[in-house]
Specification:
By secondary structure, the chain is of the alpha/beta class. Among the domains are: 159 residues, Tetratricopeptide repeat domain (Serine Threonine Protein Phosphatase 5, Tetratricopeptide repeat), CATH 1.25.40.10; 55 residues; 152 residues, no CATH class; 89 residues. Helix content is 61%, strand content 7%. The strands form three sheets. It has a five-stranded mixed β-sheet, with helices on one face.
């Protein structure tokens, strides 16, 4: 979803020969000479001239004017600040024309020049921060975008800028919150609109139109379609009054109205508004621009709803062409190189939609495997693109967010691979494809962390550099935890400023690391996964892997069984009560509800490991790789046969799965492979660190009395085999002690304790030890 953005300096009324509304580049003029004041007025006039051309959609004129004023700016500001101003204006132009990477490069250079000049409390800096915030938002780096906008807001408040600039920043902050917290976004948009309406006497103002548009898009997201259309009508009238004829802002509102009608299943109205928007965009931009690609994606959706599959495919292919400066192949079986798109996220959407159109055409019209292969090749390209986007996203939460977005991609890819597998041709190839996509859906973030660690070792990065990075990351984590605890506003701002500076320092540090050590870069971003053949080589002869994939859209559970000799796929139904029974099992165990336990345990075993799943008699060890809600299921407790409550006297006699198999868990088959390889490399001298705090009175948690005996038994087993251990029980299980240990000296780490995972704010996740 796209939103309107107040990108840079504000212009109310502008004449090329003079500036009626000035934004000064410094916080105050002080006692400067009249000559300096006149120079500043001239600089502001030139900058506003460029910005007004950009705002009015006159991009070629803006580019020409920038070239013209270059010498004038250098004469008026004979220092680095003139270059920073020019770079920021060039960045604003690149941003307006959809050239996101160019915009980022220009604005980052402008920022570095101002920092080099020592102008870290300069109003130009707020404009650069806002531009970079919008750029990062476009790239999906929402956390960094938010920090940049909050930094701009803090600096604006410090410089006591006018309320209009504050309103612009409120609007931009609303953009970041739009998807993850619509109510908070709506509050920021409403605050911005209130300021605009207070300052401007005339309703026909660009900022008011922008606010109406953004509020409408939130209402659309909340399915308040009529309210959304009312606000979009207001925005449309304003843009038509301000810019008669073709203008990108008018086209954007028309496109937004088309999207609302599409959500309302009013295909005829959706087609009308989207085609009006397309015609207008093409008059302004030509045939290649991200917004034109977005319109074609929407028109493709309309065609797909009408089951006009070839028309839909044409639109999605046109979207790929429009989003690229070089790709021109209109054959829907062709896909662009992933490096050539203006907007990577938009290319990702086009590829996923194209795959959906191919699959729908196969299922509802042709039944040709060719169409399924067309869908799969589109998703293979999308998979490569996800890897590239993940490199660009620095924040862990943004990477997790990408994981959610790419989940649809991998579910589609697994399903289509299995359709081709079941079709009879190249069955082994497509079965392995399905397994590959399951792994890609699970392992990307964890494997990237492993790759990062391994890369530092193999690339011969000096220990002191690795230690420096560790300190930076620990300081960032500390500040994130402090912010997550919602401190007082004055303290919060101090933390935010420190975090902002530290995060940018870390980004520069990593960039320099990757530049100085090319081998590190290549290893860190290696996305290769182990093949089934490689995984089989490290599986023990009496072991097997049960790799689960839960397909939410199709409500299926795919079980990939793998042992030393076999690879099988089972397609299992995901019953309507699946999630309810998982909750029931956990409650039964927690509250000791025997009858409920027997019922839910048997049901879930039939769901995830039915009797027709053939496990050879020689298998005594199961490595289980769950997915989705299955991560919450203790497989050890599942019952292999149904048991009547009336026949249950002793629960220790029940046919638990753990009585048939030793059970372990992993996050992915790729990580299983990594761990097995690591185990093969370990020497005979294997040490263990055993930690059990046992009591947690000061944390309000229950004591875990049996963990002390468990720890002592593990310690005894290791010592019997003449292996060294370190046993930390009760008050010995100190946080400081654990942090002081060199954990690399231990082959095994055993922690018996509580744990708390905060899914919304990962920085607040905890693992309690003794203080």
């Amino acid at each position: 979803m796209t939103y309107f953005i107040n990108r840079s300096l504000r212009v109310n009324v502008f004449l090329l020969t003079g500036c009626l509304y000035l934004i000064f580049l410094h916080s105050s003029i002080g006692q400067e000479s009249q000559k300096k004041i006149e120079d500043r007025l001239a600089i502001d006039s030139l900058a506003d001239a460029v910005q007004q051309l950009i705002t009015s959609g006159q991009y070629e004129e803006a580019e020409q004017f920038l070239q013209t004023i270059n010498a004038d700016l250098s004469q008026l500001m004979p220092d680095l600040a003139s270059n920073a101003l020019l770079l920021n204006l060039e960045g604003s132009l690149a941003l307006a024309t959809g050239k996101i990477e160019t915009a980022e490069e220009k604005c980052e250079s402008a920022l570095q020049l101002l920092i080099q000049k020592g102008l870290q409390e300069d109003l130009l800096l707020t404009s650069i921060y806002k531009n970079l915030g919008v750029i990062n938002w476009f790239m999906g780096n929402n956390r960094e975008a938010l920090e940049l906008h909050l930094k701009a807001l803090s600096l604006q408040q410090k410089l006591k800028v006018d309320s209009l600039n504050l309103a612009d920043t409120y609007n931009n902050i609303g953009l970041v919150y739009a998807n993850e917290d619509p109510d908070k976004a709506l509050q920021y948009y409403t605050d911005a609109l209130a300021i605009y309406r207070t300052v401007y006497n005339d309703e026909n103002n660009p900022s008011i139109a922008i606010a109406y548009n953004n509020i409408a898009l939130i209402n659309q997201q909340k399915q308040n379609y009529n309210a959304a259309l009312r606000d979009l009508e207001k925005a449309l009238l304003i843009w038509q009054a301000l810019y008669p004829g073709n203008h990108p802002n008018t086209a954007f509102v028309l496109a937004s109205m088309g999207k609302v009608y599409l959500d309302k299943n009013s295909q005829e109205s959706a087609n009308e508004y989207l085609n009006r928007a397309l015609t207008m965009y093409q008059a302004v931009y030509g045939d290649r621009h991200p917004e034109i690609a977005n319109i074609h994606n929407l028109l493709g959706n309309v065609a797909l709803q009408a089951q006009s599959f070839d028309e839909a495919l044409t639109h999605f292919q046109t979207a790929l062409v429009a989003n690229s400066p070089f790709f021109s192949d209109m054959n829907p079986f062709s896909n662009p190189p992933i490096q050539v798109g203006y907007r990577a996220d938009l290319m990702l959407s086009s590829l996923i939609l194209k795959a959906e159109a191919f699959e729908s055409k196969h299922l509802n019209k042709t039944l040709r495997p060719l169409d399924l292969r067309g869908a799969l090749t589109a998703l293979e390209t999308a998979d490569l693109l996800v890897s590239q986007i993940r490199i660009q996203r620095a924040n862990v939460q943004d990477k997790l967010s990408l994981g959610v977005l790419s989940g649809e991609l991998y579910e589609d890819a697994v399903r289509i691979s299995l359709l081709l597998h079941n079709g009879g041709l190249r069955r082994k190839y497509y079965a392995e494809k399905a397994f590959y996509f399951v792994e890609r859906s699970k392992a990307a973030l964890l494997l990237s962390a492993i790759n990062d660690s391994k890369a530092k070792s193999f690339a011969n990065i000096p220990p002191e550099v690795i230690e420096e990075e560790k300190q930076i990351k620990e300081n960032i984590s500390f500040l994130e935890q402090k912010l997550a605890n919602k401190p007082e506003p004055s303290i919060e701002q101090i933390y935010r400023d420190e975090l902002f500076t530290l995060a940018r320092h870390y980004a520069s540090f990593v960039e320099e690391l990757e530049s100085q050590y090319p081998a590190y870069f290549q290893l860190k971003y290696n996305t290769n996964l182990p093949t089934i053949k490689q995984i089989k080589q490290v599986i023990g002869k009496n072991s097997a892997i049960l790799n689960y994939f839960v397909a939410e859209k199709s409500r299926r559970i795919y079980l990939f069984y793998l042992d030393k000799n076999q690879f099988k796929i089972y397609d299992l139904p995901k019953g309507d009560n699946f999630e309810r029974y998982i909750t029931g099992l956990l409650n039964a165990m927690n509250y000791q509800k025997e009858e409920l336990f027997l019922q839910t345990s048997s049901y879930l075993r039939e769901c995830v490991l039915p009797n027709f799943v053939q496990i050879p008699a020689r298998i005594i060890q199961l490595s289980i790789i769950p997915d989705g809600r299955l991560f919450q299921v203790p497989f050890e407790t599942l019952l292999t046969t149904k048991v009547s409550p009336k026949k249950t006297d002793d629960f220790s006699e029940l046919p638990f799965l753990i009585k048939h198999y030793a059970i372990s868990y992993d996050y992915s088959a790729g990580l299983f492979y990594e761990n097995q390889n690591k185990a093969l490399e370990i020497s005979d001298s294997q040490a263990a660190l055993i930690c059990a705090p046992v009591k947690f009175q000061n944390k309000g948690l229950q004591s875990l009395a049996a963990t002390a005996q468990e720890g002592q038994q593990i310690d005894s087993i290791f010592k019997t085999n003449t292996q060294s251990t370190k046993l930390l029980l009760y008050d010995q299980a100190l946080e400081a002690t654990i942090k002081a240990e060199d954990l690399k000296n231990f082959t095994y780490l055993h922690f018996a304790k509580h744990g708390y995972v905060d899914e919304t704010q990962p920085a607040l996740s905890q693992t309690p030890l003794q203080p």
